[in-house]
Request: fold
Amino acid sequence: MALPPPCPYDPYGGNHIPPIPMPAPSPVPAPVSYLPVQNTKDNPPCNTLFIGKLGENINEEELRGLFSIEPGFKQMKILRQEKHTVCLIEFDDVNSATNVHHSLQGTVIPCSGSLGMRIQYSKNPYGKKKDSALG
Reply:
């Protein structure tokens, strides 16, 4: 006499519990849009970018989240001045900075307001002051 096949193991004993949905990781908010930006007075390419046209309500975490995911990102410094806020961002090399210069030009950061940010190469690499002429 043959035994019946064993029943498949059921860890819930017939009481199936619906799976609990896991929340998706909270991504950095994507830029809402891009606006055309006049950038006629750019500097020669270097590994540091100057970010202008940031609204006075710019959120450092949102700005850092936008740039820190870019390949080659090293560090960032926000400079809040009386009339405007700007940012300097250092990358590992000129190629990394150039890719960001082109891909994020005119990005509108929601907390910043309605302006598209202007990205230029910095006059000097991050942390280096222009050499003064001796004479």
